[in-house]
Design brief:
Blueprint: H1 14-34, H2 41-48, H3 52-80, H4 82-100, H5 106-122, H6 125-132, H7 140-155, H8 158-168, H9 170-189, H10 213-220, H11 226-229, H12 233-264, H13 268-290, H14 298-320, H15 327-357, H16 362-391, H17 395-406, H18 408-414, H19 419-433
Length: 434
């Protein structure tokens, strides 16, 4: 009689349902928090009279608090499982959005941004990634990439969110978003779970040759401890690259809507379409570059993504210099190029952690990565806000963003897999199983 590892159970592989559920929760987070909250930054500046850099700093608080909480989220995922952590995060995010709809003071803004950040970090794709990597091995890059498409699909809803802000106001829109997070997030979040050790279907949903099941499971669950991984040269190079890349990436994602609205006088609905362009372009990056993570080294692919992200940003500055109407199309070209690079990097950042350090401590390592990388993502929008307050334009801000983002390119290409550690901890996993 064939062993469980050599036959497939009837039906669709359960791991794909986890990918679908993770993608759905990511789509909801993108539509409400990641992209959605950027649609009314200019409204806050107008209504409350805050400086641009102060308002953008509020968004940066969301980024940094999310980074600070990420190591704790990673620890909680490894200890309690992604589903429990995800459900808690959904509740916190919904509460934060409701509270924000009633804010009247600047300190309210910073406080609720921090609360929303904790919730969205807890309910973010980190939970989905942690679950997915346990279900896939040979198709891991494909599965992670497909789950990240949820973020792009959520971005397609931004024109609707922007129109809602224009028609009903940002307060009422936030209340609707809170309801969406609570209902949709809980519905799909219940299906995000790690793979049971004795699941009847083979890994990847594909029949495997007869082999020692225990040994195969051990090799899939190997991992370099966090305390060892963070002392490696490869970790230092990757984290430095993530900081530089985060500076450029979060500046673009946070301020693209406000940039097109401010510089070209676009309506809310039209500016919302810029996010649609960004997210659709990022889909191409996720599919074309993300899928290659099963065939080529993720670190090198990340270097290619950084090149694309950096090349598009100066075009946003150049577009401002044209007063004949052609500038907006130059800016759109830059947005598309940068978005492709951003999109490809989303699944690859998680994949490179697994490729270098295994899955045993994935949650903690990804939490550490988020904490470090958000340093750049926090500083970037603030500096662009300062430049905007001084010059009333985004020109120098985008040039600065491109310069910092370019620093990630040589860092990614210099990062090498710690082969000695990989062999050592794979051997320890086998010995431990024996």
């Amino acid at each position: 009689m064939p062993s469980p590892s050599s036959r497939s159970s009837a039906g669709i592989y359960s791991g794909w349902f986890v990918v679908l559920a993770s993608g759905a929760t990511t789509a909801i987070a993108a539509a409400t928090v990641f992209y959605g909250m950027n649609t009314f930054l200019n409204d806050l500046i107008s209504e409350f009279g805050w400086a641009a850099w102060v308002t953008f700093a509020g968004s940066s608080v969301r980024t940094e608090v999310g980074g600070i909480s990420a190591p704790f989220v990673g620890w909680a995922i490894d200890k309690f499982g992604p589903r429990r952590v995800l459900i808690i995060g959904i509740g916190i995010t919904s509460l934060g959005l409701l509270l924000m709809s009633n804010m009247t003071e600047l300190w309210h803004f910073f406080l609720v941004m921090g609360l929303i950040s904790v919730g969205s970090s807890t309910a973010g794709n980190l939970c989905g990634f942690a679950a997915i990597v346990t279900w896939f091995e040979r198709k891991r890059a494909r599965a992670l990439t497909l789950s990240t498409l949820g973020g792009s699909l959520g971005g397609l809803l931004i024109p609707i969110v922007a129109i809602a802000v224009g028609e009903f106001g940002w307060r009422s829109t936030l209340q609707l978003l809170a309801l969406l997070v609570a209902t949709g997030g809980l519905t799909f979040g219940m299906f995000v779970r790690t793979r049971p050790d004795k699941h009847p279907q083979p890994i990847d949903g594909m029949a495997q040759p007869d082999t020692n099941v225990s040994a195969a499971t051990s090799l899939r669950n190997w991992g370099v401890p966090v305390s060892v991984a963070i002392r490696t040269r490869s970790f230092a190079l990757l984290m430095s690259a993530f900081v530089a890349n985060g500076f450029a990436m979060m500046s673009l994602l946070t301020l693209a809507f406000s940039y097109f609205e401010h510089e070209y006088g676009l309506t809310k609905g039209a500016a919302g379409l810029t996010i649609t362009v960004l997210t659709v372009s990022s889909i191409f990056g996720r599919i074309i570059l993300g899928f290659q993570g099963d065939r080529y080294q993720p670190a090198k692919l990340l270097g290619l993504c950084a090149i694309l992200l950096t090349l598009g940003l100066p075009l946003l500055s150049i577009g401002i210099l044209f007063a004949d109407g052609s500038g907006v199309w130059i800016a759109f070209a830059g947005l598309i190029i940068s978005a492709i690079g951003f999109g490809g990097s989303v699944p690859l950042r998680s994949l490179v952690i697994v490729d270098f350090y295994g899955t045993a401590s994935f949650g903690k390592l990804m939490g550490t990565e988020r904490f470090i990388s958000t340093i750049g993502g926090t500083i970037g929008p603030i500096l662009i806000g300062v430049s905007l307050d001084i010059t009333n334009h985004y020109t120098w801000g985008w040039f600065l963003t491109a310069a910092v983002g370019a620093l990630a390119i040589p860092l990614y290409f210099s990062a090498k897999r710690p082969e000695t550690l990989i062999d050592e901890y794979k051997a320890k996993a086998l010995v431990g199983q024996g």
